[in-house]
Amino acid sequence: MRRVVFPLFSAILFLTLQATLLMSFPIQRIRPDIVLILTLYLGLLYPPVSGGILAFFIGYLMDLFSGNSFGLYTFSRPFIFYAAQFFRGWFYLKGFLFQFLFVFISCLLEGLLILFLLSSLNLPSLPNFFHSFFTFLLPQSVFTGLIAPLFFFLLDKGSVLIFKQKVRLTERG
Amino acid sequence: MSLRVKQREGIAFFDALTMEFCSPFQKGTTFIIKTIDGVFQKYFFLVHLQRENEMLKQRIIELQAENHQMKEMALDNERLRKLLQFKEKISAPMIAAEVIGQDPTSWFKSVTVNKGEKDGVRKGMAVISPEGVVGQILKTSPRYSTILLITDYNSAIDAIVQRTRAKAIVEGKGENRCQLKYLLRTEEVTVGDIVMTSGLGGNFPKGLKVGEIRNVEKKGHGIFQYAELTPGVDLTKLEEVFIIVESLSLPQKEEEKKLEKTPDKSRKKR
């Protein structure tokens, strides 16, 4: 039960922070996606079924509080979760650089997926791909990647405090 | 007493010598005592001064915080007064709402407000502020609502250019920018023209400021020209908004209902 409640409350907390505190960032384009970091954390440590449901719920929360009426994040977050599950064995996740790269690539991947879905929906005033990629998606992915090790560490600490979990992400090879 | 002084005259020299010998010691001791006393007094004074200094610094911080709070209150007061004046100007019934959160994603532009269905808010209602159009209600819950801002890619509002009365559609372009679409090429639109709501969409009252044209492009072919505008409202700094709780289409419906109820009278009039 605690293994579900902890990420659930973390998701609500992270979403609240993202919608309020991080909005005060002077440059909106570099606002990191901390909810994505949580989804990736779940992808690395949680089982496919419960983690997948949590990722779906996180995506649903994102869609609920955004101006998006297509359910893009309800689709993309479980996708990113399972991608993280699939590739977690390929990454050596101890250390800043690897965690940064893992989150950076995931953020970029999700952004490209959303751009693809948005262009598939044929929104009339959508900006062109290169403009979105270089002025917005790339800087945001870099900053999300940069703060990811700190959040992984905090989530690890939270997990240890709440359910005495011995295997932690920052200790994994 | 004078007798005793007279008796001591004989030994005056010895007294004077002793005094001359001892006094420097006394003087020295007194000097040392005074110096030590002075040092201690200065030390205690400094300690006291330090405490007083810390206390004063603390007081300055408190006063500064109070000052900021007062300034904030004054600004709030001014902003609310403007909102009140604006509310009095607009005849449509409106409710004020406070922005409690922004869009958690970076692709879409929306805000969450603290008024919902219980307050009479419904999907599609227009949201405005004294500076102009903000957006429309996208989602509602009993106590909260999400507003789709005019800068979102999914937003479209029927509008007219104030000076030329040219009709167009204002679409969101992200990042505090909008674009004018379906603006006829024959229309003479220039930078600085004000774009207003046309009132044709049914949600927004006519004559509300949408924004100001910043760029006009006439491409080589086609029947339309392209114009970019900046919204009248700074949507990145939204704090309070007004929701027009009565849709403009409502009175028409009511009129229709009245006509249905009294068909004979209306026929007679015709």
Explain this structure to me?
The complex is a heterodimer of chains A (173) and B (270). Chain A is mainly alpha-helical and 173 residues long. Chain A has 6 helices and no strands. Chain A has one domain: Arp2/3 complex 21 kDa subunit ARPC3 (Orthogonal Bundle), CATH 1.10.1760. Helices cover 71% and strands 0% of the residues of chain A. In chain A, helix 1 runs antiparallel to helix 2 and helix 2 packs antiparallel against helix 3. Chain A is globular, with a radius of gyration of 16 Å. The model of chain A has no long low-confidence stretch (mean pLDDT 82). Chain B is an alpha+beta fold and 270 residues long. Chain B has a domain at 94-247: Thrombin, subunit H (Beta Barrel). Helix content of chain B is 39%, strand content 28%. Chain B contains 4 helices and 12 strands, in the order H-H-E-E-E-E-E-E-E-E-E-E-E-E-H-H. Chain B has helices at residues 2-7, 12-89, 249-261, 263-269, and strands spanning 94-102, 110-113, 126-129, 132-140, 145-149, 156-161, 167-172, 178-184, 194-197, 209-217, 224-231, 240-244. Chain B is elongated and about 130 Å long. The interface between A and B is medium-sized, with 29 and 28 residues.
Brief digest:
The complex is a heterodimer of chains A (173) and B (270). Chain A has 173 residues and is mostly helical.
